[in-house]
Fold this sequence. Notes:
Blueprint: E1 8-13, E2 20-22, E3 25-28, H1 32-48, E4 53-56, H2 66-75
Parallel strand pairs: 1-3, 1-4
Antiparallel strand pairs: 2-3
Helix pairs in contact: 1-2
Amino acid sequence: PHPRDERSAMIMLGGESGLKKVGNMITVxxxxxxxxxxxxxxxxxxxxxxxxxxxxxxxxxxxxxxxVRDRIRRATRPVET
Length: 81
């Protein structure tokens, strides 16, 4: 499925401290602590909504994001390109 598919959702980094939802796109905070605080709630919400696919923009590969990146890797399966 493609990210624009109605059965897909996308999680992207944003600039605000809270969540923002527009259609199937969810913007999460660009602060690693706030992102971590919202991550599992967002994943559960996407799962409960019945989406077939979830596309997650990986946070930066920097030390302050290590825990968040690890959580994403454990909760998702990479797309093969």
